């Protein structure tokens, strides 16, 4: 008899499980269950390859389709994975990388802003100024002046440090 009770319990549990599955499938039809899928980000090699490609082609036109081809994904799938991985759209990321490149060139060279704009893949100086101010919070010219002042302050500090070391007989390596 106890064996029959156990079999009846198992059978009842199976019936309940089947009923629950049937109810779930009615509440969530197949096409609705597929919509719930989470978008996965790019793999590590894909992130590295895309970031490198963007930096190497920062001076030109970079299209989402080209980026997707680099990592063997459709433009749509790539855009979703990119946003999941980088926290922003490919367009926004490329724009930020262009501004970072411009910041470096503005701070370290005396090239005209029009040439820096072209070197960073922006159409002209006006476009560079507009994007730069929106992202950085100051104009490119102000950025250049700030960087120049910072460099001269650093150079003065280096000269003063060197003078102190020279007076004590120490070398820069020993400090």
CATH architecture type of the domain at 44-150: Orthogonal Bundle
Give the CA-based shape: elongated
Give average pLDDT, whole number: 81
Helix content: over 70%
The first-to-last residue Cα distance is 90 Å
SSE topology string: HHHHHHHHH
User: Approximately what portion of the residues adopt beta-strand conformation?
Assistant: under 5%
Q: What do we call the CATH homologous superfamily of the domain at 44-150? A: Homeodomain-like
CATH fold-level name of the domain at 44-150: Arc Repressor Mutant, subunit A
Task: Provide key terms for this protein.
single chain; 175 residues; mainly alpha; Arc Repressor Mutant, subunit A; 9 helices; disordered C terminus
Q: What would a concise description of this structure say?
A:
This protein has 175 residues and is mainly alpha-helical.
Could you please describe the fold and organization of this structure?
This protein is mainly α and 175 residues long. Helices cover 75% and strands 0% of the residues. The protein has nine helices and no strands. The chain has helices at 2-27, 30-35, 44-56, 64-70, 75-86, 90-108, 113-119, 125-136, 140-168. The longest helix is centred in the C-terminal third of the chain and has 29 residues, at 140-168. It is elongated, with a radius of gyration of 30 Å. The protein starts with a helix and ends in a 7-residue tail after the last helix.
């Amino acid at each position: 008899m106890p064996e029959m009770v156990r079999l009846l319990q198992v059978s009842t549990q199976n019936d309940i499980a089947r009923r629950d599955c049937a109810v779930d499938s009615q509440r969530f039809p197949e096409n609705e269950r597929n919509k719930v899928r989470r978008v996965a980000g790019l793999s590590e090699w894909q992130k590295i390859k895309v970031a490198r490609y963007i930096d190497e082609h920062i001076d030109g036109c970079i299209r989402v389709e080209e980026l997707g081809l680099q990592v063997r994904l459709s433009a749509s799938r790539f855009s979703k994975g990119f946003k999941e991985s980088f926290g922003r759209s490919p367009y926004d990321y490329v724009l930020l990388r262009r501004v970072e490149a411009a910041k470096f060139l503005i701070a370290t060279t005396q090239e005209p802003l029009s040439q820096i704009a072209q070197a960073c893949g922006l159409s002209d100086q006006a476009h560079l100024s507009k994007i730069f101010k929106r992202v950085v919070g100051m104009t490119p010219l102000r950025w250049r002046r700030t960087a120049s002042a910072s460099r001269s302050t650093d150079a003065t500090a280096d000269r003063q440090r060197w003078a102190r070391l020279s007076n004590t007989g120490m070398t820069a390596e020993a400090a």
